[in-house]
Every structure is written in structure tokens, then in C-alpha cells.
Amino acid sequence: MQKELSYTELKNSCKPQDFKFRTTAELTELSGIIGQERAVKALDFGLHVKIKGYNIYMAGASGTGKTTYAKESARRLAQTEVVPKDWCYVYNFQNPRSPLALSFEAGVGKKFRDDMSELVQLLKTELQKAFRAEEYEQKKTALLRSYDEKRDALMDEMSKAAEEHSFQIKSSNSGIYFMPVVDGKTLEEEEYDNLPEDIKDDIEKNSQIVQERAVAIMRDIRELERESKKKVDQLDYKVGMFAIGHHIGVVQEAYRDYEKAVTYINAVQEDVLENISQFFDDDDEEGDGLSSLLPMLSKKQPEDVTQKYKVNLIVDNSETKGAPVITTSNPTYYNLVGEVEYDNEFGNLTTDFMKIKGGLFHQANGGYLIVQAQELLSAPQGWEAMRRVIKSREIDMDAVREQLGAVAAPTLKPEPIPADIKIILIGSSYYYDMLSAYDEEFDKFFKIKADFDYEMPRSVENMGKIAQFIKGFVNREKLMDFDVSAVCAVIEYSSRTAERQDKLSTRFNYLAEILGEAAVWARLDDTEVVTAAHIQKAIEEKEDRLKLYEEKLNEMLDDNIIMIDVQGSEIGQINGLAVLDMGAYAFGNPSRITATTYVGKSGIVNIEKEARMSGQTHDKGVQIITGYLGQTYAQKFPLSLSCRVCFEQNYNGIDGDSASSTELYCILSSLAELPIRQDLAVTGSVNQKGEIQAIGGVTHKIEGFFDLCKKRGLTGKQGVIIPVANIRDLVLKDEVVAAVKEGIFHIYAIETIDEGIALLMGTPAGVRDAQGNYPKDSVHGRVSAKLKEFWQYAQGIDA
User: What is the DSSP letter of 324?
Assistant: First the structure.
């Protein structure tokens, strides 16, 4: 049954007497989050589960406090957890292209780096001291002297053998060779050619003997040289070991609990002893060679021989308290995984293990990483990097430079680091559904979904929490306090944002914007507290900044460019209501709908659909109207109807089924030839049985038509027809509520098409009698008669 609504049903007013405080100065700040019990329970459970795959996706609309609560919850739990390990990369003496990863307890990594740096400098000093000592020089000289004596003896033996066979030894840069001697004189090549053949034969025989003897002696010399070098190396190793062994032993003892570190220190010791000469300055070559000819080369810094003994500390938890909680707004591949940097030296790219830079995964290892889904999916290779770490449970710095087709350069393959990270991915339900659809392993990676609601019950408890939220905002932003009237105004605004009388919005960023702007207006007003007037001022000013498009439409309505009547009656014409959503601002927009009917078989034709300006839901609504007409009027004869329905002067397209009842009224008016009141606007969806169904945006739609009527002059008869199911969604402005209270504007709630017919056409819809016929003077009777007439015409045409 139709019902005209009382002004008390148009909004759920918040009264100051409902609260015990006068200003927020009397309140304590809110801890936790409001109205998200399900999400809070899911998040807290997910944080405590330390099993693989129990990462968390926090889904919900922006501004519901997801990120803030995730940080607070993760940090609160992280403070009770163990500080994770430090991680270092060091030189791999076995495979320099694959640096080794060493782990230490928190704070030990930094000490290890410093200890190794100090050790290497100490080794350099001690080695230089030991190898410049007189004792070492004497031992080395003795070894070299012994070698020289034995070598000279062998060379003398070679010379004697040559003399015995009439040859003399000559030496050059390329080695030694033998010259024949005849009559005490060394022969040149021309002289040799002039010798008799018998003498030449003798020389050749002797040459063969001498060369065989020389080969044997040279073999002995090389063996002697190897033996001498081995003895010198053994001396160097022994002296070096004596010089540095104690210092290295001290460091090994300090890190005896870290087996891999001890192994690395041993490798450092062996490399130092095998390359002792690198620790001595080579002044003799300074200024020589190519660098003296090319100034650009001479400016090059000398190579640091201690570089490969340094320690690259990529994760330092020495100052960390509890487990780390890392957030990022730029989750690119390199920011997540880390990278190996390069230097450009004369056009060549070079790198080493000290240029390995850790990423967010390294920082968050052993703790929590909070990432925004949209930013992650917008970053090239970002999602792939994350899923790889989750799946393999290790951080592996692959050379993405080559994968992406970049310039080829020397690459490192650092040893992967074990990963133990709880990922908290934050985004809308859209991204959750998309990842579930396109990544078959997503549900395996993110087993916990914390779903944040966009609204919460408008209970006394939640209203009190909003007051505490305001107090917290005041404290954080160092603003003046809000009085109880301002709190009530914020609660009413929250209900309006939620578009429900019994709900409050959980999108607190919208409330925070109003709170901040209201505080500015209060300061400009030179008051001590923020009042309801300042809240209202902030809301109005914010809307005014966003309503340019609405004003342009209103100008066209005022100038009758867009034609809409708010008085009188017309056949086949009705005022529909739509909502234009501009993103940050939405408003109601009245629209004229017309219908024409005539004999034919095409049925109802949606002109918007024919022009490709209609959405799928609107097309469905038109099909439902066809079903209603068949159910109501075509029980005894088929429909022979052609009908055109149009949203006049609509150039932006239309979607949704909220105008389906409006279109049906218009069609019935055309068929019954009964005028529709133009001082009423209609919204509501209809089903095939003629029942009126709820729609969205009812508040904006009513206010849009009210504003138009107010500009053209309220007659006291104007109003809007809405579904009964939408009464609870009414959160109208005070101006509309006042007009209804004064009786100059009306809002009717209906449940069926028949109730709307009586209101719009001033004639009863009609009820079937026992024979299934409608009263002739009723709307249904007139429509039925017209459709039967159409069918008869159609039968005659077919005949």
C-alpha cells in the first residue's frame, strides 16, 4: 500500500543529548579500528600463523583504515618477536661470480664487517713488516744465492762441453745458441758456408752432441729453478703464516659459532698467503708503460688489493627492536629483490660483490612486508618477484637486466638467502578477484583474506567510537576540540556517506577530510571549539568545489535547454531520476522519459540500446517490462505492440534498472491515453510481477528533483515516488526534510506498480474480476482494451 513519508522518516538525526560529554576534550583517544570485527579477527589470526602460504590479503574500499591497522597490528606483534639475522655477502674464492652469503645474529654482522676490515689492514701492515725484516732478506738471499751457484755450475759445465767440441756459447734475449769455432776463431754464417764439406760434417756432428748435452743441462736448470721457487714460496708462506696466523686465529675464535664464517676466514688466509706480493707497493713501475703516455689512464685510482677481503653488509639489524615491519609505496623489481650495481670504466661495465644492494625483501626478512596491490601490479616484474620469493622461500637476485633485454654486462649470481617473510598485500576486492582468476597459485600463496567492510551498524557503541576517533584526529593534527554538536554532525555525515539510516561509513579518510577542513573554518571563525556549523560549512564548501558539472546542467534546465516539466500532466511522458557519479562527488539528475505505442510486432524497443548508449542492466530492465505486459495483458490474446522508449536529451548513455518502473508507467500512460503528473518524479526497479524493488542513490535522486522544483517554485504538490525498500536508505538534507515537514514537498513509498499508477494518473489501476477482466474505466482495463484493439487490427492486416 502506498505511503506518504513523514519528515521523521527522512533521516536518522543524531541528538547531542545522546552523549554524556560536551567536547572531545573529555574523551580518550580511540585504540584499534572501528566496525571491522571480521577483518580484525582474520588479520590477527593470519599474523600469528607462521606456516608457509599464510600471507594476508586485506581487501576493501580505500579509506577504511586497512593500511594503518596493518602497520599497527604488525608492529605490535613484531615487538614481541625475535630480531632476525644480519646478512652479508663476501668474496667467493672458488667462484668469484657467485658471492657467498653469511648470516649472523643481530648486530654481529656489523661487528664482523668491522673486524674483517681491521684484520685486513693489520695483515697488510704485519706482512710488510715481516717481509722487510733483515732475517727474511738473509734467508731469501741465501736461497737465491744457492740457486745462482748451482745454475752457474751447470752453465759452466755447458760451456766446457761446448769448448770440447769446438763451440762457443752466445746469449740473446731469445735464449742461448752455439757458434762453431775453427782454428780458435768463431765463424760467421758466410764463413761457415765457404768451409769444405768434410769440416762442415764434423761441425754438424759436434753440434748434435753439444745440443743434446745442452738440452739435458737446461732441463736440470729448469728443475733447479722450480725447486728454488718452491723453497722461496715455502719461505714466504712460513714467514707470512708466522706474521698473520695469530691475528687470523683470534678472529676465527671470535666467530667459532659460525661455521661458514670460519671457513671463509680460512679461505681469506690462504688467498693472502698465496698472493703475498699484492700487499707490497710496486714503486718501480710507477709512471712506466702505457699510463705514462695516456693521461686519462694515469688518473685511474690504483687497485685496492684489500677489496676482495671486504664484507658487504646488506642487512644490519643491530638497531632493530623485534621483527622488522617494512612498508613500501614503490615495489619495483629492484626495490624488492635488490640489485647489482655497475660502474662504467671507459665504456666497459664492471661490478663486484661490494656493489650488491639489498632490497625490501632483505629488510623485511624475518618480519613483515606491507605492499599495496595496485602499486605492486603496476610495477614491471613486481608480482613475479613476490610470488617467486613466496614460492621458493628464498631471495634470489636474478640478472633481470638480461631478461629485460638490456645491454649485456658482466653479471654476478649471489648466493640466494633463505626468506621468512609475512606478506601483507592491501588492495580492493577487484585486485583480489583478478589475482585469483589469473594466477592459479594465488590462493595457495595468500590463504588469509581480511575483508574490510565499507559500512558498520549505527550503534551507540560505534557512535561513541567515532567520537573517540575525532579525539585521536585532534591529538594527531594538534587541532582544537570538537563540541558534541559537531560530533553529531559528523555522525550524520557518516550515515549520509554510507547512504543508510542504520549504518555508518567506515571510510574514515572522508571523515578526516571534513574534520580537518572544519577545524580550519573554526579557526577562521576565531572560535575555541569546532561546532556543527563548521562541519556543515566544510561539507558545503567541499561540494561547492566539485559541483561545476552539476551547475552547468542546472543552467541548461533553467534555460529550458534540457526540457523537464515540474507541473501539469502529459500522456506518455514522465520524470525519471538518475545519479551522475563524478568520482569524488555524486548528484541526482532528473530526466524526461517518453514512450510511443502503436500497432506492430516489434515489441518494446529501447532507443538507447539501438543507439548503443544503453548498458546491459538497463536492457534487462526493458525485457522485464515486456514480461510484465505479457503476464498482465496477454492471457487471452497475443501482444501486437510496437513501442519506443527513450531518455530524452540523454547523450552520455544510461545503465541500471532503477528506471524500469518509470518506463513502464510511461508505456501504460501511452496505451491508456491517460496523462501522468509532471510534478512527480519516479525511481524504482520493477519485476515481472509488478513488484517495486530497491534501487541505489535514492537520496541524491530525491534531492536532485527537489532542487529543480525549488528553483522553479514549490507548488506544494511536487514530490518523488520511491520503493518502500529504500526508506531506510534516506539520509536527506535538512532543507528537504523541512520542506516535507511543511507539506510543500512529498515523498511516497510504494510496493507495487498499481500503487504508483493511482498516484501518477489519478485513476485506479484496477483489479481483475472472476472472469479475469479489468474494469473498463481502470488503467489496466483501458490498456487491455487498447492492446486487444491493436491485436484485432493486426489480425485484419494479416488477413
Answer: -
User: Nearest to residue 515, comparing CAs of 547, 544, 543, 480?
Assistant: 480
Count of Cβ atoms closer than 10 Å to residue 662 Cβ = 28
> Can you tell me the distance from the alpha carbon of 116 to that of 50, in angstroms, rounded to the nearest whole number?
35
Strand partners, 180: 167
Reported as type and span, the H/E element at residue 403 is helix 400-403
Integer Cα distance of 487 and 748 in angstroms: 31
Strands of the 448-451 sheet, one edge to the other: 325-328, 368-372, 422-427, 56-59, 448-451
Helices and strands (DSSP H and E) totals, the chain: 28, 31
Give first-to-last CA distance, the chain, whole Å.
45
Dihedral pair phi/psi, residue 376, rounded to 5°: -65, -45
pTM of the model: 0.79
What are the backbone dihedrals phi and psi of residue 597, each rounded to the nearest 5 degrees, phi first? -130, 145
Whether 282 shows a pLDDT value over 70: the answer reads no
Residue 613 scores a pLDDT above 50: yes
What whole-number percentage of the chain has pLDDT above 90? 57
Query: Above 80 in pLDDT, residue 652?
Result: no
Phi-psi region of 747 (alpha: psi -120 to 50; beta: other; left: phi over 0): beta
Which stretches within 328-381 are classed as H helix? 333-337, 360-364, 373-378
CB atoms inside a 10 Å sphere around CB 219: 10
Distance separating alpha carbons of residues 748 and 754, to the nearest angstrom: 13
In 603-660, beta strands by DSSP E:
603-606, 641-647
Nearest to 680 by CA among 666, 694, 696: 666
Backbone angles phi, psi at 613, to 5 degrees: -120, 15
665: closest CA among 738, 756, 745? 756
Quote the CA–CA distance of 526 and 351 in Å, as a whole number: 63
